[in-house]
Structure prediction request, 154 residues.
Amino acid sequence: MYRLSEQEYYLEEKNHSKKLYEYIYTRIDGTKRNPLVSYEKFYEESSIFRDMWRYNEIIGYIRLYILGTQIRGEYFQHKSKRIVKTRKKSFIYITHKLVSEINIMNQTNDEIYNSILQYLERCEKELEKKYIDIVSFKSIGQYVNWNKLIDDNK
Prediction:
């Protein structure tokens, strides 16, 4: 789970760089200085100080687990009250069930996969203004033998 989507993050970073560039090349009286480098070069060179979205913007996670014939999701969240950019994160347990569980009794693998997707969509609605990244889940979830996985974990 992320503070914002990947596109929003990089747009925010670009806007921040633009403001910084304008600040550096604006005099106190408001007139523009002749920049020593173009904005594109400035943005490219300042990218070494930017964090990667996928690994540095995580603010929480949902751990899916099986309880009998139900799938539930434990919710862990960033420990701080105010979520800001930081490289140091500590997560705390919030709840054993973020939204109502899903029953997967007698479902096919495809039905279980779709049920989990619906569950994660409900989680995203519950966590307003948060972005749940399910791209990796979508790319592998459809190939998982869910029934075998569930039977093996009993």
Notes: The chain is about 40% helix and 15% strand. The chain has a mean pLDDT of 82. The first helix runs from residue 6 to 24.
